[in-house]
Amino acid sequence: MAALGHTFPFYTGPKPTFPMDTTLAVIITIFLTALVTFIIILPGIRGKTRLFWLLRVVTSLFIGAVILAVNFSSEWSVGQVSTNTTYKAFSPERISADVGLQVGLGGVNITLTATLPPGTPVQQLNETIAYNEAFTWHLGKDYAGEYAGALRKGLPNPVLYLAEKFTPHSPCGLYNRYRLAGHYASAMLWVAFLCWLLANVMLSMPVLLYGGHMLLATGIFQLLALLFFSTATSLTPPCPLRLGTAELHTHHGPAFWITLATGLLCLLLGLLMALAHRMQPHRLKAFFNQSPEDPTLEWNPEEGGLLSPRYRPIAESPVPPDIPLSQAPSEACCGEETPAEPDCAL
């Protein structure tokens, strides 16, 4: 029996949510704090080195922030549709709403927001309809259990319908496709993050060539993550998602495209460093503020010249001049040191 304006009392209302994912907010805050700290100390760097430091730090922080952010993002595959559909079970009431689906590497996020034509009240069915529900399949998480909990809470029909399509026993098979794709893509992104850390360590040392190689590896692993996600999600035909009078279609989201752009950027930077190391090694070292200060040390063709300096061979070393020594003083010294034997005459 409906009560309180056709709202069933055993349905819990929507909870207030943070404007964005808290994990992404923490990642962005950490990297922005590092950037602001560097900008504060930037005036202490003189000359052209200031611009070089700014370019290196901003580019490096951008790459690291993207790798971490997309790993926790839920916008790898997205879709949205405006439809007129039933609201909740055991009720014939229908609503006009925007239904959104966001698929990430670790789960799905489903949104339901009421859309109202001009001149109508702000609320539909005497309540503000704004839902944002997440269902995860991370290691150690139970997607089926979370879906059962959503059924017990009595979430709206569009949310339950989309969540049911991703359950392990759904005939659509979306759970296995996206779960495997998410696991492999996430693993590749973590390896890319480790390569990014190694690249930063090597670029701060006189091993620039190997730092460029690590940048190449960072880009390659990001592209491998995209390959795993695209391949696993396109092996089987798409499952139709019909919501009332409309059908929901998904496509690659912002996280997918920004990962592609960052991976290509890492590949380009790594190739440029390898080319600069072969063509203009001294300019590359000057860009990273690693020019040798001691003129007696020579740079080897391979990186690490300052760690293992090449000294001049013996043949190239200057020969000390021969200083003639006078014989008389030495004889006198010998005469003084050796006393004459007494002449004994018998």
Strand order of the biggest β-sheet: 4-3-2-1-7
Total E-strand runs: 7
The helix/strand order is HHEEEEHHHHEEEHHH
Quickly count the helices.
9
Silhouette: elongated
Q: Strand fraction band?
A: 5-15%
Stretches where pLDDT is under 50 for at least 5 consecutive residues are 1-16, 118-122, 293-312, 330-335
The description of the largest β-sheet is: 5 strands, antiparallel
Q: Calculate the mean pLDDT score and round it.
A: 77
Q: Which structural class fits the helix and strand makeup?
A: alpha+beta
Question: Could you characterize what this model shows?
Answer:
By secondary structure, the chain is an alpha+beta fold. It is 47% helix and 12% strand. It has 9 helices and 7 strands, in the order H-H-E-E-E-E-H-H-H-H-E-E-E-H-H-H. The strands form 2 sheets. It has a 5-stranded antiparallel β-sheet with strand order 4-3-2-1-7. A two-stranded antiparallel ribbon has the order 5-6.
Offer a few descriptive terms.
346 residues, alpha+beta, five-stranded antiparallel β-sheet, two-stranded antiparallel ribbon, 9 helices, 7 strands, 47% helix
